[in-house]
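Title: Prediction job returns without error message
Component: structure pipeline
Severity: low
Priority: P3
Assignee: unassigned

Description:
Job completed but the reporter wants confirmation the result is attached to the right record. Sequence as submitted:
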Amino acid sequence: MQKDNLNITSDQLAVRLWQELTRAPRDKHHDWRTPVLATQGINESGPQARTVVLRHADAAMWLLRVYTDARSPKCAELVTQPLAQLIFWSKRLHWQLRVSAFATVEFKGEQVDAAWENMRQSRAATDYLSELPPGHVQSCSASLIKNTNFSMSEHHLAILSFKVSSIDWLALSKDGHRRAKLTPSDSVEWLVP
């Protein structure tokens, strides 16, 4: 870990964190590209956590975006209870982020159409074209069922947008840990690690 990661000041911290967050969607090897999303399950299922792929980060708006299948349970969970957390860990930096956010789910519209236009040319496009929803029990033992009778316009892509309300940053070091809570109002509160 770089020594300057521990010497970061209050006025530098948010800028530094958002530099990493905005880089992560473009860098397939960035640790923060695949955070864990935690939601409140429905029907008394309790908390639910799963890894997602960060597709966009907007530092000015304190906004993060993820794509998912519109039929995924996480969509129903976030529509019912829009409070969520995203957990990021960077082995390179030895930094953990706990991001608290208010989620919105977009099932259609200009942003979904634009995201699909970019996605439809990728190998991941088939993830959003399945006849069956995620988590559905398969009737055969095949590990992957390919749908060959689909129209590229009949997709199930949805966008999860997370308006960040706070970031809990923890930097781990053998020289002493550091922790702070940041908010979009440029507030930085230093905490006991």
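Comment from assignee: result matches the submitted record. The mean pLDDT is 91.
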